[in-house]
């Protein structure tokens, strides 16, 4: 165990942080990925963080920017915040090559994740992207796909920057949706969707979950409702019914903190927090999670425009996890992700 200058305690037995500050000019690792060897490294890292007394986190949903990503810096942040593994999707350029370079640079910290359904590849260029993604899960052994934006309001940062190109609507039951569900159905590899909570969007998603019972869907951002007037159905009881009707559905828990406001609507969009008591999460949400802990996955939603800001989302995620009872807390923090990706216990 090592106490560093910030007062944080680092676990013993962690893989050293890489010394490189850029992925540029590095050679990619060969594919298919050797998942057996990788899983051995990943288990060791989870165990080292647990042995240090910190609850290890597996971040199921984050992405890294093209040229600006600093492997040494990011590894240090992960170690400081007890993030055992990050499922990282490359945001720009040739995503497969970037991801393979990442896995060459630091194989102990990252779960290779395919290119995501985000601009500039999506929805223009989506056919090509999905062909590459299908090949990557089939031949390169990527264990996760995503995140694909079917309905996406601009993020808080994008609203503030006036970037409306991220206001995306792709029908989930249209050709691209069918193709993606089919890839997952055939490969067994899960994919992540960004799908805002609106009444009109719920029936088509349910129809797709029924039509592709072996497709594994991670619906990102549990309980994030940005315009309450567009959402009268979704809530803990609806989510419970969805989980009980569709064994192939999962949720990730990347959402804002208790005081976070969505600037597009001026509403508090992370609806999970208990605003009445001012403490923890709403008991009805806690009850659904405790009843189905393997269906909820810890996530930080780090992106290329905020690679240095790991501390705040990690704090929010731990605040949420602290409100979950102990046996389920560990499941949501890391065991559920491992079980979903590898069908084994961690
Ligand atoms: Zn998202």
Question: What's this model, at a glance?
Answer:
The chain is α/β, with parallel strands linked by helices and about 350 residues long. The chain contains eleven helices and 13 strands. It is globular, with a radius of gyration of 19 Å.
What does this structure look like?
With 346 residues, the protein is α/β, with parallel strands linked by helices. The chain has helices at 35-51, 71-80, 95-105, 126-139, 156-161, 175-187, 202-211, 236-245, 283-291, 311-322, 326-342; strands at residues 2-3, 9-10, 57-64, 83-90, 110-113, 145-152, 168-169, 191-195, 217-219, 249-252, 261-262, 267-268, 296-297. It has one domain: TIM Barrel, CATH 3.20.20. Helices cover 37% and strands 15% of the residues. The strands form four sheets. A six-stranded mixed beta sheet has the order 7-6-8-9-10-13. Strand 3 (57-64), helix 2 (71-80) and strand 4 (83-90) form a beta-alpha-beta unit. It is globular, with a radius of gyration of 19 Å. 45% of the residues are buried. The structure holds zinc ion (ZN). Zinc ion is lined by residues 147, 194, 220-221.
């Amino acid at each position: 165990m090592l106490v560093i200058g910030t007062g944080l305690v680092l676990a013993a037995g962690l893989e050293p942080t890489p010394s490189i500050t850029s992925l540029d000019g590095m050679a990619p690792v060969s594919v298919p990925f050797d998942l057996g060897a990788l899983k051995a490294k990943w288990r060791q890292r989870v165990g080292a963080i647990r042995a240090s007394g910190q609850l290890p986190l597996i971040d199921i949903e984050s992405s890294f920017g093209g040229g600006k990503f600093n492997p040494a810096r990011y590894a240090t942040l992960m170690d400081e915040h007890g993030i055992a593994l990050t499922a990282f999707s490359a945001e720009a350029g040739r995503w497969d090559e970037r991801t393979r370079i990442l896995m060459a640079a630091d194989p102990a910290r990252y779960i290779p994740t395919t290119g995501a359904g985000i601009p500039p590849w999506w929805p223009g260029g989506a056919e090509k992207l999905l062909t590459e993604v299908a090949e990557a899960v089939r031949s390169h052994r990527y264990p996760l796909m995503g995140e694909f934006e079917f309905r996406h309001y601009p993020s808080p940062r994008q609203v503030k920057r006036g970037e409306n190109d991220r206001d995306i609507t792709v029908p989930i039951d249209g050709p691209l949706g069918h193709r993606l569900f089919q890839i997952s159905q055939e490969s067994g590899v899960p994919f992540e969707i960004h799908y805002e909570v609106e009444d009109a969007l719920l029936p088509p998603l349910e129809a797709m979950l029924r039509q592709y019972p072996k497709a594994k869907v991670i619906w990102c951002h549990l309980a994030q409702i940005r315009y309450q007037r567009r959402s009268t159905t979704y809530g803990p009881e609806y989510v419970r019914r969805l989980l009980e009707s569709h064994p192939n559905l999962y949720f990730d828990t990347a959402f804002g903190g208790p005081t976070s406001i969505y600037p597009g609507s001026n509403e508090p969009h992370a609806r999970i927090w208990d605003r009445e008591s001012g403490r923890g999460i709403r008991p009805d949400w806690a009850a659904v999670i405790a009843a189905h802990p393997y269906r909820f996955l810890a996530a930080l939603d780090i992106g290329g425009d905020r690679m240095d800001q790991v501390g705040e989302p990690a704090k929010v995620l731990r605040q949420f996890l602290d409100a979950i009872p102990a046996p389920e807390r560990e499941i949501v923090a890391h065991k559920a992700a491992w079980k979903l990706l590898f069908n084994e216990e961690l």
